[in-house]
Amino acid sequence: MVVRWVCASFVLLLLVGFMLNAAEFVNGGITSSYARKNDISADMPLDSDVFQVPPGYNAPQQVHITQGDHEGKAVIVSWVTPDEPGSNTVLYWTDNSKQKSSANGIVLTYKYFNYTSGYIHHCTIENLEVSQSYNGCWNWEYHKTILVYSPPRAGPDVPYTFGLIAGDLGQTYDSNRTLTHYELNPTKGQTLLFVGDLSYSDDYPFHDNNRWDTWGRFIERSAAYQPWIWTAGNHEIDFAPDIGEAKPFKPYTSRFHVPYRASESTSPLWYSIKRASAYIIVLSSYSAYGKYTPQYKWFEYELPKVNRTETPWLIVLMHSPLYNSYVHHYMEGETMRVMYEPWFVEYKVDVIFAGHVHAYERSERVSNIAYNITNGLCDPISDQSAPVYITIGDGGNQEGLATNMTDPQPSYSAYREASFGHGIFDIKNRTHAYFGWHRNQDGYAVEADSAWLYNRYWDPSEESSIASF
Ligand SMILES: *[C@@H]1O[C@H](CO)[C@@H](O)[C@H](O)[C@H]1NC(C)=O
Ligand SMILES: *[C@@H]1O[C@H](CO)[C@@H](O)[C@H](O)[C@H]1NC(C)=O
Ligand SMILES: *[C@@H]1O[C@H](CO)[C@@H](O)[C@H](O)[C@H]1NC(C)=O
Ligand SMILES: *[C@@H]1O[C@H](CO)[C@@H](O)[C@H](O)[C@H]1NC(C)=O
Ligand SMILES: *[C@@H]1O[C@H](CO)[C@@H](O)[C@H](O)[C@H]1NC(C)=O
Ligand SMILES: *[C@@H]1O[C@H](CO)[C@@H](O)[C@H](O)[C@H]1NC(C)=O
Ligand SMILES: [Fe+2]
Fold first, then answer.
1. Enzyme catalytic residues
2. Distance (Å, rounded) from C-alpha 347 to C-alpha 311?
3. Which of 175, 225, 243, 333 has the most CB within a 10 Å radius?
4. Could you tell me which CDD domains the record lists for this protein (predicted)?
């Protein structure tokens, strides 16, 4: 085979300069007056520029990377070859040393109804040196994409910027706007936390899995260059026994590999990673989470393991929000809230990001864990040990926005707005993080909502005066 290197160089800025306006904490209870035209978002047609198949026989496509271990020194590189398996090898080298190392991965295919996938490759590159910038390449003809990856430094005061294009992205013109706004935001996200509902291919007849491929090509422009941390949503279930597809999560778990074994999980649907100064726990809203279930047993031992001296910031990702004051999906997260909220408060989780509701909402720090069937104590109360709940299900999918809100706005709800957008969770040091939410209709730097978050372990000071409960 003729080996041709077509490589360009990109530079990943490890530490970005933070240019932020002074922000004030928004007191409880804002329903934004911003009225977005509520047109249903149309999916981009198959011949759109963002879906273009790279030219050349068997050219790799749908390249995406995610963290490959628990500590943050490994990366999983995934890609699809359409015509034949091709090589499983990734070659990589640092800027300083031109000597190339190689890592071998695996290749798999799957069938779904009458669809057969391309050759899906997953290759884990381990033991990368922190803060070193790596370039990677594939030894095929026609290859275009260069992996550029820098494992983050670890440490309690390491600043780190997470993006949140959350969930419910889909592949509409609005999805493309959301991704573009994330890319052009002057505060550069270094890793994207994705809270479920990826391609929406299950909205097509027979769950047309070709829409998984178009989605993979659409996100490559970001996901090949920074890790996207995956959470499963309801659109990943792809459970359709009527057409003979009774194995839940088959396309999702075939296409998106995560380092679940590194956190002693038995399922890719729930796992944890450490990244810079954060500890991130991913939960599955659509797997059993009741007492004695595998997810419960894993999670029970997970929270006590978190060492807040090492990773002060404790972030949980899930798809279905636990606090949601929209009519759409109202109370769908209630059973998981009943199971896990006491732990979230006990272990002082800083923030919980969810999607599912196609809108944005940020909560006050509240808990609702006193109820015991007979005592009647079933209202949320202000609780500075509780997480802030942020719903960011406003990526832009073809199902449109959730605009109908419960009225009046409950006092636990600090800010809500039905617009598409993205978020930035910007960790400054062990005590301070700054969250900004950006709606797609504004300029790239504009924040429609923002809040400082004080770390619940290191700085338990009150963030806000919460309205009376
Ligand atoms: C799969 O089945 C659908 C519905 O019958 C049909 O429209 C489509 O062309 C089929 N695709 C393949 C690859 O056979
Ligand atoms: C998607 O967004 C990118 C970047 O803004 C743009 O170049 C491209 O033309 C857009 N494609 C569609 C189909 O909207
Ligand atoms: C927590 O991490 C710190 C810093 O790495 C370390 O000194 C300490 O021993 C750890 N605590 C436990 C209980 O492992
Ligand atoms: C429920 O809560 C009430 C009031 O806090 C308490 O008196 C009662 O013993 C509790 N019941 C149970 C079963 O724990
Ligand atoms: C909004 O939700 C309420 C409560 O479920 C319902 O009665 C009402 O019809 C909904 N309005 C719209 C416009 O969907
Ligand atoms: C942590 O960051 C905040 C916000 O940038 C800053 O005000 C504070 O002084 C920092 N704390 C330390 C110990 O550097
Ligand atoms: Fe959803």
1. 329
2. 13
3. 175
4. MPP_PAPs
CA distance 450 to 439: 12
Indicate the top mutation candidate among 157, 306, 307, 311 to test ligand 3's pocket, ranked by most ligand atoms within 8 A of CB. 307
**Helix, strand, coil share (%) of the chain residues, nearest 5:** 15, 25, 55
DSSP code for 379:
S
From CA 230, how far away is CA 247, in angstroms rounded?
19
Query: 18: which 2 tokens?
Result: 């933070």
Q: Which residue is associated with the tokens 């797997």? A: 287
Span from the CA of 372 to the centroid of ligand 2 (angstroms): 52
Query: Encoding tokens for residue 213?
Result: 């491929």
CA angle 26–28–29, rounded 5-degree value: 115
Tokens at 407, concatenated? 């009225």
CA of 194 to the centre of ligand 2 (A): 20
Cα separation, 286 vs 3, in Å, equals: 44
What is the distance, to the nearest Å, from the Cα of residue 340 to the centroid of all Cα atoms in its chain?
20
What's the burial of 321, exposed, middle or buried (CB within 10 Å: 0-12/13-18/19+)? buried
Residue 177 CA, closest ligand 2 atom number: 2
Q: Which two tokens stand for residue 320?
A: 């279905």
Distance CA(141)–CA(59), nearest Å, equals 7
Provide the residue-wise pLDDT of the chain in tens; the chain has 469 residues: 222 222 222 222 222 222 222 222 334 588 887 766 555 678 899 999 999 999 888 889 999 999 999 999 999 999 999 999 998 888 888 877 778 888 999 999 999 999 999 999 999 999 888 777 777 665 444 455 567 778 899 999 999 999 998 767 789 988 999 999 999 999 999 999 999 999 999 999 999 999 999 999 999 999 999 999 999 999 999 999 999 999 999 999 999 999 999 999 999 999 999 999 999 999 999 999 999 999 999 999 999 999 999 999 999 999 999 999 999 999 999 999 999 999 999 999 999 999 999 899 999 999 999 999 999 999 999 999 999 999 998 777 777 778 899 999 999 999 999 888 999 999 999 999 999 999 988 889 999 999 999 999 998 776 643 433 3
Which H or E run contains 197?
Answer: none
According to DSSP, the residues that pair with 61 across neighbouring strands are 80
